[in-house]
Amino acid sequence: MSDSSIEQAIAMLALTEKVVVEGAGAVGLAAVIENQKTFKNKNVGIIDLDIRQKSMFRFLENRSDFCRKQKSDLPRPTFYKIDQSNKDSKAESNSEEEKRFADALTTLEETCDFLIIDCPGGISNYVKMAHTVADILVTPMNDSLIDFDLLAKIEASTGKVVGPSIYSEMVWECRQIRASAKHPPIDWVILRNRISHVFSKNKHQVGNSLKNLSKRIGFRLSTGFSERVIFKELFLSGLTLLDLEKMADWQPTLSHISARQEMRMLLAGLNLTGD
What we know:
Helix 1 packs across helix 5 (125-133), helix 4 runs parallel beside helix 5 and helix 5 (125-133) packs across helix 7 (166-180). The protein is globular and about 55 Å long. The chain has helices spanning 3-11, 29-35, 55-70, 90-109, 125-133, 145-148, 166-180, 201-217, 229-235, 241-244, 254-270, and strands at 17-22, 44-48, 78-81, 114-119, 136-142, 152-154, 161-164, 187-193, 220-222. Strand 8 (187-193), helix 8 (201-217) and strand 9 form a beta-alpha-beta unit. The longest helix is centred in the middle third of the chain and has 20 residues, at 90-109. By secondary structure, it is of the alpha/beta class.
């Protein structure tokens, strides 16, 4: 990413709160925000950078289909799709993608109070730009040492952290860019995903390692999501648990109520102002 494009990216969306969410954790987050009373009359925009998997795109398609078939007026965010550049040279490709990203930010800034950028798991030009402009970065990770390796390297014999991962180094670089432009630091939130209710040595070790690492590389831990079937089932309809509250025939189970509370705790933990 060139210096000029970095400055351009940072200058974008000065009045819009931006949340970058990686991986499947982004699915449904925009709809949840629009359902909260705190954010009534606030508009949410989405940029989908997960060009291959397109989970967010498919979720919103399913949501639109549901609303059309059920004649429902459930809130739907403004969606902006960005394609990958097909230019031959890396320089030309980066330049084209930087322009597309800047255009997306400019377009959504006009109508949106909140912007969610869905990123793939890897590192790319788009991902670097998204992290640079992010006010809040939400990184979901499965409750395993395999996923932990994406944040830091661990010494096998002692379990101690010996160094940051490539991804953590990228986040640090993006923080440095923002600091040089005198912008507020990124609020980095780690979201533990698919947490098992059964105690295990792995679960305990991941928890302790995350607490120690948070002080070292500067992130905070959010209340996570347990392993629940309901999250996967709702994807096909493009719904969230907060949508189900409005359904007259919905009969919640204890598991559904617990899952709904997890979502509310996540939103509370993100400290979104809604102003």
